[in-house]
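Issue: ligand-bound run for arabinose-5-phosphate - logging full I/O for the record.

Environment: standard queue, default settings, no custom constraints.

Inputs:
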Amino acid sequence: MLNEQELMKKQVGERAVDFVEDGMILGLGSGSTAYWMMKKLGERVTKGLSVMGIPTSTRTEGWAKEFGVPLTDFTQVDKIDLAIDGANEIDENLNLTKGGGGSLVREKIVNSLAEKVIIIADKSKMSTTLGHYPLPIEVVPFGMEITANTIAKLGCTPVLRKKNGETYISDNGNYILDCHFKSIPNAQKLHEKLKLIVGVVETGLFLNMTDVVILGSDLGLEIIEAK
Ligand code: A5P
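Outputs:
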């Protein structure tokens, strides 16, 4: 039996699959909400839907194989019709913090190429201003200490992500620094400053990229379109 939050994730994940049309090239997001989207997508494929997907993590790639969703890659396609992905925090303008699961670089490559981006999440992820969720920043392992010190000067204490007691390694072979800025009033400016730091690969700020958010709450599903 699913708890209330898991049920919400399932509902928003499945609802997003209604937006998928035959022949589409899909961006397949990562995370526990995207899991439900993948499962439903697999059911539709079994019933005859013809789509190809690009997974944003090795985990999602595994689900695609498990549920029978055909995969492709950037040697075969140069555009994506629709990306469906989760988020860690969503502000009023549908700007996001992502990367809680460590897949921010691949997610950003895929989502920025997509003609339409749908974000699936439960209501607890909404906030007026980003910053409640520590910002994941992917960095090159070499010189990571120096990169972290430079990031800290922008107003946070970077924490090197660990998993099972070991330093977490992203699908791209990099490290992730979780950076709690407390409040990010100007996400664009912060993103630009971070990208200028040598050693920073990508930030978890996904700005002006989202077209639709499907939000789950105890009152049901809400579909929010970007202004
Ligand atoms: C993965 O790196 C993230 O960007 C996920 O999309 C995000 O963490 C949402 O995951 P959940 O659906 O598990 O909350």
